[in-house]
Specification:
Blueprint lengths: L1 E2 L5 E7 L8 E7 L5 E6 L6 E9 L2 E8 L6 E6 L5 E6 L6 E7 L5 E7 L6 E7 L5 E9 L3 E9 L5 E8 L9 E8 L5 E4 L3 E5 L3 E3 L6 E5 L5 E7 L4 E7 L3 E3 L6 E9 L2 E9 L1
Antiparallel strand pairs: 1-2, 2-3, 3-4, 5-6, 6-7, 7-8, 9-10, 10-11, 11-12, 12-17, 13-14, 14-15, 15-16, 18-19, 19-22, 20-21, 20-23, 23-24
Length: 273
């Protein structure tokens, strides 16, 4: 549940019985007295389970884990009347997200986990206001699984992530303890629990806007990429070598660069001038 600008509330529910939209997620918009004003729900496939939500500029942004083998994430934005503004589904290979937070300078953050049962990493992903991922930052530990539970923005644009770290012990289950990470607005660690020993580089392109050559920060080896327009039209397939990508022959406009770092799908939004 979150408070709205009109002093009412928005409630995110998962209905597994025939009450609203069985087996799916619904948003209820209530006034300050608890009276139902508007609602949103859909019988989308696959159905999902509710996670968390925020209010942003009067709109509601929430996400759900889809009931599929890979627990893909669907993010939905609604206007103040609970009409759909946009909906996006993160493809196979993206993290299993657990928490959402507003970003006061624009966009929002999702925090989640990725990796196998014995080497979970915490992932912080920044999205723009249209639901496009801008970069992801990865945090790990030398001996523990890191499973985030909450993310929130602090004063000065800092980001706080809290969760559980577990150490698999044969014959003793999975002992748990809390961890925290305080990062700057680019995901770089400012302070953390002692066990946090590594943070991998975020993937982002610079300069942005770009005129000739774009440098992909955080890419450790050559990678096949696809460049798309805002409408989803494929412009070309290319190869990033030494983290460099030639933009000189592209027309001015907004482009999306999609590639993989290992098994992790990545997307960068770039403005060509």
């Amino acid at each position: 549940m979150t408070e709205t600008d009109d002093h009412g509330f928005a409630v995110l529910i998962y209905s597994d019985v025939c009450c609203i939209h069985a087996g799916d997620v619904s948003v209820l918009k209530l006034d300050s007295a608890g009276n139902l004003m508007n609602m949103f729900g859909e019988n989308a496939f696959p159905p999902g389970s509710a996670n968390s939500m925020i209010e942003k500029d009067g709109d509601i942004i929430y996400f759900e884990l889809l009931d599929s083998a890979d627990f893909n994430t669907r993010i939905i934005r609604l206007d103040p009347s609970c009409n759909l503004v946009w909906k996006t589904t993160m493809s196979e290979g993206y993290p299993r997200y657990a928490s959402i937070s507003d970003c006061q300078t624009g966009g929002f953050y999702l925090a989640g986990a990725t990796g196998g049962s014995s080497n979970y990493q915490t992932v912080l992903t920044k999205f723009d206001d249209n639901g496009d991922s801008l970069y992801s930052y990865y945090y790990s530990s030398s001996a523990h699984n890191l499973v985030p539970l909450y993310v929130s923005e602090l004063s000065g644009g800092r980001i706080a992530i809290t969760g559980e770290e577990t150490t698999p012990v044969v014959g003793n289950g999975n002992p748990r303890r809390a961890f925290f990470i305080i990062a700057d607005s680019s995901g770089i660690i400012l302070s953390s629990s002692p066990s946090i020993v590594k943070s991998e580089d975020a993937f982002f392109g610079f300069p942005n806007p770009v005129h000739d050559v774009l440098k992909i920060n955080g890419l450790k080896k050559a990678a096949a990429v696809s460049i798309y327009t805002m409408t989803g039209r494929l412009v070309r397939n290319d190869l990033i070598v030494d983290g460099m990508l030639n933009f000189s022959n592209l027309e001015a406009g907004v482009y999306y660069i999609k590639f993989k770092e290992g098994e992790i799908p990545c997307q960068i939004k770039v403005l060509k001038n």
